[in-house]
Structure formats: C-alpha cells, structure tokens
Amino acid sequence: MNVLSRLLNVAARNSLIRFHPKCKRVSLTHLCFADDLLIFCHGDVSSILVVVGVLGVFYELSSLQLNAGKSELFACGVHDDILSRAQVVTGFKLGSFPVRYLGVPLVTRKLTAKDYLPLVDNIRVFQISGVGSWFFLMWSSSRLSSFVKEYALKGTAFWEVSPKPQFSWTLRKLLKLRNTVADLFGNVVDWNAVKSKWVWEKLRDKREKVRWEHLIWFPLHVPRMSIVAWMVVLNRLPTKVKLINMGMKLDGLCDLCNAELEDKDHLFNDYGFVSGIWRSILQTCKIPHMILCWSDSLDWAVVNFRGKSLLVSILKLAWISLLYFVWEERNFRCFRGCSRSADNIFECIRRYVGDRINGCSINKADSVNLQLCLDWNIG
Ligand SMILES: [Zn+2]
Question: How far away, in angstroms, is 253 Cα from ligand 1 center?
Fold first, then answer.
C-alpha cells in the first residue's frame, strides 16, 4: 500500500494528477480503510487517466489488480460527458451519494438507528458464521487532522475554536471533550510517564475484581483462549439460544449432540462430550471428578485454582483450553462439517498445556511435580 501511496503522491506533486479542490491544501490524494481505498482527484479526464495509469504501474509492480467490478466512481459538479468518459476509462460503475461503507452512509451528521441497520445485519452474519472479516478503520491520522484543521477549523487551533452549527456531529463531540482532556493532562508534570496505560488507568471505570478473574488472566494465559473463556463466563458467546433470543430463526439444537438446546451451560458443562474431556483432564492431574452444574463448577475452580503451583497452572491452562477447543469444535461442526472426537480434543489440550509450560522453572525434586511433568509431557 505504501508503494501505491507514493506513486499517487508523486503523480500529484508533479501535477500529473490535479488535486480534488477540497484536498489541495493538505495534498490529500487517497485514504485507506483496511483493504479499501478511496482515491480523490479533480474531475477531469486527464487526472483520471493518470490515476488509472498509476494503478496499472502498481499492478505491474505488485501483481495486485484493482477489481473494477467492485469499484465505484463518485463525482459531484462534473459534466455528464466527462463522467461518461471517466466511466469508460476506469470501467467503474457510477456510485451515488452518500458513499456507504459496510452499508452505513459516510456522512458528517449523527447517524440514526436506521442508518446502522445494514451494519447490524453484517454483525449478525458475522455472529452466525463465527468467522468472517471484521473491519478496522485505518486513517492516516496526520493527514486527517491537517484536513480537519485546514477545511473545518479554517486554520484556528483546535483548543481555541468555538463550536459552529456547520461543524460535523463528530467534530462537535470532539470539541465538547476538550475540558475532559484538559483536566486529564492539565497537571501532568512528567510527560514521559504519559503512556496509553496511564491514560487508560485515569479514564477507566474502576470496579471490584470479579471472583473468577484469576482463572482467566494469569501469567501463562493464552490471550485468544482467555478471551473465549472470559466470554463463556460472561455468557457472551453467540450460542444458538442467545441468537434465538436476539430474534433469529434457528432450530437451536446443539451441533455436538443434535439433541438439546445449545446454551452456555449445556455446551460448556452439561453435555457428556465436554464433561468427558474435563474428567480426563482431572484424572491426569489425579483429581476425582464430580458432576456439578456450571455455576458450582465455576465456584469449585475459583476456590481450588489458587496459588502458583504447577498443578494450578496446569489446571487453569487446561480449563481455558477446554472452553476454547469446545467452542472451536462447535464452530467446526456448524460451519465446516468436520468433527473431532473427545479423545482428540483432550490430546490437543494436553499437548497445548505441555508446550506452554515447557521451559518454565519447575521444582522436579517434588514428586507431585515430577509426576505431573510425566503425565503432561512437560520436558
Ligand atoms: Zn449438545
């Protein structure tokens, strides 16, 4: 993307591409949104031809070709003849304002609930599929701030400008936050101490730690597994029962057993599949298995998974891995049509736990630790 960016900027600097009238003062030729690209130029055929030429050069250099079928041309105040020629030259179809991104209009006013509907639908699709691409907006922040300063604030400093009705909703919101930001940074003595963690600690809403915090976040935790475990405990994973409660029309049947409703308790505690794997984990740790409901299981773990012993580290890692692999298995069966046995998943967990703990300092003079190392393949 940097190469394309430079090619466009060089072409504009050499006046081969004329700037869009609202982009000239900040020399803006394009913006990137993850893998989406917006190119701005003056509405004349020669500028558009050069843009097409630059895209061609970029294709020769990278083998990445723009998909004309997925690209759109937006124009305002351009004569119909020029617009028709631009369409022929680019092969792009003509888009209509407002520009939409993931179905949501890119406008300066506050978006209404109706505007967000296509995005909500996208999120629902994302939740059903379990996999999918999520979007992440990547703004060229320095360019954007100079654009706002030049065209919205007309050169006045952000801290001094008075809010005006013609400012966008977002800009008005940002201006309202000036006092909060001034309070936050007004008394800073050591600017070297101002890191993102410092800001987060100042701004965040501090509450009591939840009793199960140490089960999810511990020194050896694996972030992707801890996040799934965290969502399980909070009951935030989109199980079928949750999706039905959100208004989706589904059969609600668990993909692991095809017999009962798929909710958090069933999937992660009650069903024989998961309790069988948990029994194997406990047996490998020489701990007797008890059949408990989800809430009692969690209470048991909260009380017993304390301290820094090897056994506790293994149990915590095995527990978050179990929740992670069960959710993964559910998604595999639901969306990929493939499945693994409970024994396979237990072996995955055993390998994962062993690899994670390998290399940690362990007192092997302790017979319990020595046996655990043998049983969990810890070197
Ligand atoms: Zn089931």
Answer: 7
Tell me the backbone φ, ψ of residue 337, rounded to 5 degrees: 70, 20
Residue pair 98/106 in contact by the 8 Å Cβ criterion:
yes
This model's pTM is above 0.85: no
The more confidently predicted of residues 180 and 224 is 224
Q: How far apart are alpha carbons 323 and 344 in whole angstroms?
A: 15
- 151 CA → ligand 1 middle, Å: 58
Range of the domain at 289: 213-375
Same domain, 146 and 237: no
Domain count of the chain? 3
- The CA 350 to ligand 1 mean position distance, Å, reads 23
Same domain, 75 and 112: no
Q: Is residue 135 part of a domain?
A: no
Sequence-ordered list of residues with C-beta below 8 angstroms from that of 291, at least 6 positions apart, any chain? 275
Report pLDDT digits (tens) over 180-189.
888 888 888 8
The answer for residues whose C-beta is within 8 angstroms of residue 68's C-beta and 6 or more apart is 90, 91, 92
